[in-house]
Amino acid sequence: MPQVTKRKLIKYLPFIKTAILVVCLIALFIYIVRLFLPIYNFSRQNNISLKFAFDFLMHGKLSLKQYQDRTNLIILGIGGGNHEGADLTDTIIFLSLDTKNHDGVILSIPRDLWIPSLEDKINSAYHYGEEKKQNGGLILVKSTVEEVINQPVHYAAIIDFSGFKKMIDVVGGIDVNVEQVFEDDLYPIAGKEDDFCGGDPTFTCRFEKLHFDAGLQHMDGEKALKYVRSRHAEGDEGNDFSRNKRQQQVIMALKDRILKTGMWKDRDMVKKLLNLFDETVVTDMDWSEKISFAKAFMDLSDKGVKNLVLDTGDKEKNQKGFLVNPPAWEYDGAWVLVPRTGDFKEIQEYILCNIKDTSCKMFP
After folding, report:
1. Of 57, 67, 63, 59, whose CA–CA distance to 98 is shortest?
2. Environment class of residue 95 by beta-carbon count within 10 Å: exposed (0-12), middle (13-18) or buried (19+)?
3. Looking at the chain, which runs of residues are DSSP E strands?
4. How far apart are CA 254 and CA 251, in angstroms?
5. How many CA atoms lie within 13 A of 64 on its CB side?
6. Cross-strand bridge partners of residue 314
7. How far apart, in whole angstroms, are the C-alpha atoms of residue 119 and residue 125?
8. How many whole angstroms separate alpha carbon 61 and alpha carbon 54?
């Protein structure tokens, strides 16, 4: 290299370094803007404070109501539509998360559980609450569930079955381990409730036949919905208690699908899921609480989740349950479930034991 050229390079070297540094800073600024601008816009649109967004992204700090490091949520499922009983809750699941130790309790509450204060089944609480005032359904459901379990219920969320199907389809379906083969000849076809079936006295056209093989099954939204709603199979799979277990299975399968595929790292997919959640789920959470709860749920350890179902036991296996089915005449001909001890105290002790102790061995 000529000596003159070399001297010129040395002369302008500080300026070259400065120029390179400026270009790098501009590139970094553009990268940060592209990364955080969508987050900023989303925060503004949904009234999320920038402080929460910063604390959540930088430190994983959650914004949730809690009691003794636990946040409790009631998940409700309704049929929706215009048919009679469309706002009766078909599914009632209590989900308690320990955000410190990353364990959880999932409890299915039977829809036929009799509530003395309502003088009706628990699945009618949402209906009565909405009758009294708009958005009163979630308030009454939370207080009713608290009456049963003696635990604070911080939040409630309700989803209809069309939203349930969409959620599963968006993630590409779920994998569920069907414990035993079963068939249901009387699964209702939506929109056929009032079809006279051409005079067929058995109304066969109103129903379709379902069949599920045992083993690991991949399910789209439609199949998963049928799996959790089926209630006319022969044997154990035909009762509500088995159906409650299947509902819990699907919730955990959805969590596993999102985690194991890594789609929670995909910004576009996360945005799509959040928008779908906003469209299909009614809840009393604000957006910072929704995001916080979703993270706490995803952080659950697979081995740290206890799945509980309140049932009547199994006579063939000589297993007792916390509930009994009293004579229908005592409840104006209605088929209901009541605590075997006459009140909810034993059930409350059972739930408290499982919440406080992951190795709780309390049985009916």
Report:
1. 67
2. buried
3. 70-78, 89-98, 103-108, 114-115, 120-121, 155-160, 174-178, 182-188, 207-212, 215-219, 281-283, 305-309, 313-314, 319-320, 323-324, 338-339
4. 5
5. 29
6. 319
7. 10
8. 9
The answer to whether the CB of 294 falls within 8 A of the CB of 278 is: no
Residues β-bridged to residue 319: 314
Query: pTM of the entire structure?
Result: 0.83
End-to-end CA distance of the chain: 91
CA dihedral 330→86→207→180, nearest 10 degrees, is -70
Alpha-carbon gap, residue 11 to 2, rounded angstroms = 14
Length of the chain: 364
Q: Please count the other Cβ atoms lying within 10 Å of the Cβ belonging to residue 156.
A: 22
Give the DSSP letter string of 280-309. Answer: HEEES--HHHHHHHHHHHHT--GGGEEEEE
DSSP 313-335: EETTTTEE-SEE---GGGGTT--
Burial (CB < 10 A; 0-12, 13-18, 19+), residue 12, is exposed
User: What type of residue sits at position 217?
Assistant: Q
Q: How many CA atoms lie within 13 A of 54 on its CB side?
A: 3
Nearest CA to 69 out of 152, 139, 145 is that of 152
Each of the 364 residues of the chain gets a pLDDT tens digit; together they read 555 555 555 655 666 667 677 667 666 655 554 555 455 555 555 556 656 655 555 556 677 899 988 999 999 998 765 555 668 898 999 999 998 888 999 999 999 999 999 999 999 999 999 999 888 999 999 999 999 999 999 999 998 888 889 999 999 999 999 999 999 998 988 888 888 888 888 888 989 999 999 999 999 999 999 999 898 888 888 888 888 999 999 999 998 998 888 877 777 887 788 888 888 899 999 888 888 888 889 888 878 899 999 999 888 778 889 999 999 999 999 999 999 999 999 999 999 999 998 888 888 8
| Whole-angstrom distance, CA of residue 137 vs CA of residue 124 | 9
What are 136's two structure tokens?
């009163």
Provide the token pair at 179.
Answer: 């414990």
For 176, the 3-state DSSP assignment is: strand
